[in-house]
Amino acid sequence: MTRAAHDFYPTPHTIIERLLDQLCWQGKVWEPCAGDGRLVKALRDRNFQVVAGDIQTGTDFFDCDQAAAPTLITNPPFATIRQFIDHAFDLGVQRMALVCNERLWACRKGSEQMRRHRPSRFINMDWREDYLGKGGAPDRALAVSIWDRPHSAVTFYEVWSRQ
Q: How far is residue 120's CA from residue 97's CA, in Å, rounded to a whole number?
């Protein structure tokens, strides 16, 4: 399957709602991969002040030289997610929540990156979404990595249900 331009796969609404239900953060949030705006809208509906951008509208996250807010919440392109994580913390992001692949940390590169930027929480979903838009049964599950600081001493593992 050919990947979508800029790795654009909108975040399923069920995952957005579940993620925002679990976060106790408030204030200003940076959403640098805003895509179709569904996460931005959900954040604003929950009274976050959102700074949004997207490569499709002329704002390339990798061209940024400082964080637009200390908190970042997004569904980044999976093709560059490892570089995304490093760059976010290099820019000064202090806490972050990313929708990610369920196997992000389950490889040598993941283990190496975890030594630099261990998340506070890693969450698998007990359901799958057809976020690639292929039709039929989804072949991959999504997950969420949450950092309450750029590097945590411990990562807590969770499994979220749809409800």
A: 10
